[in-house]
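Kindly inspect both lines:
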Amino acid sequence: MATTASPTRRTQQRALETRATLLDAATDAFSSRGFAGVSVRQLEEAAGVNRGLVAYHFDDKDGIWKAVVDRLFQGMADAFGERLLVLAEVAPTESARALVRAFVRYSAEHPELNRLMMQECMTASWRVDYIVERHVRPQLNALERAVPEASRLIQGLHDPHRYYMFIGASAFVFSAEHECRGLFGVSPRTPEFIEQHVERVTALLIDNQGDRSDQMGEYDEGEQHG
């Protein structure tokens, strides 16, 4: 005999669906226009929901921005969590290759993460602090703990040059999708392009290192003042 959901259950389900719809609209808005470029009312209009529902679900604009960022980074943490456990038992070079490939594919599937980061990191704000301290630093620390040698092959040891080479090479083209279409007449979102990019970034960052043991030490801030 079929059962009918109770009014309370239906109300809860609608609330969850409304919250997810708001988060989807806010992810698109914040990643394309930035925090200052969109109002709460515009978020509600983009989501097609009644006025006041951002306040109901997230308190305010700061709250929905935090929820967007938390969801994006939690998705990445979920995608890489089990992989790190497996790769801890693999040779460092192979582990590094696997992580780079996975990050490129994740960046292709979720370009909104890098787009939002680019929007926020152009100016100093509490939002940059939130991203760094709540998400980026803890995830990098977790990577270093789980696969220390592979982590150093990918991003060095506290080396900003190598870290941003890794992020830029892996993710930027997917954020610049429309420029890539206009300049080269190709979409970076096709499976063929993504897999080519996976192989090229892996070769650039890992396979072409050669003997770079002298560059794997901790980054010396004094180098920039030479």
Summary: Residues 211-217 have pLDDT under 50 and may be disordered. The chain is about 75% helix and 0% strand.
